Amino acid sequence: MLEEGVSQTTSRAHKAYPRRKVGQVIFHPTASNVLTSASGDHLVKIWDIDQGDSPKITLKGHSDSIQSLAWNAVGTTLATVS
Description:
Structural class: alpha+beta
Low-confidence stretches: none
Radius of gyration: 12 Å
Mean pLDDT: 82
Strand order of the largest sheet: 1-2-3-4
Number of domains: 1
Helix content: 10-25%
Number of strands: 6
Oligomer: single chain
Number of helices: 1
Strand content: 25-35%
Shape: globular
Largest sheet: 4 strands, antiparallel
């Protein structure tokens, strides 16, 4: 079951980043259906994996590849580093 979920999540991220590798993928610390991803196109995408194949939010602003993502313990703040 877990393997199938990971495969579906990877497939969704690949569709959203057709030209760049996905470098970071993390789940939200308190919402099991929320996934955050980043790739070499300098975008962070937040997904509701129970609601289709498109990201719910796309964050822009990095001028270089995103090296790291982290949510705080309660999931109210997302930190990104490029």
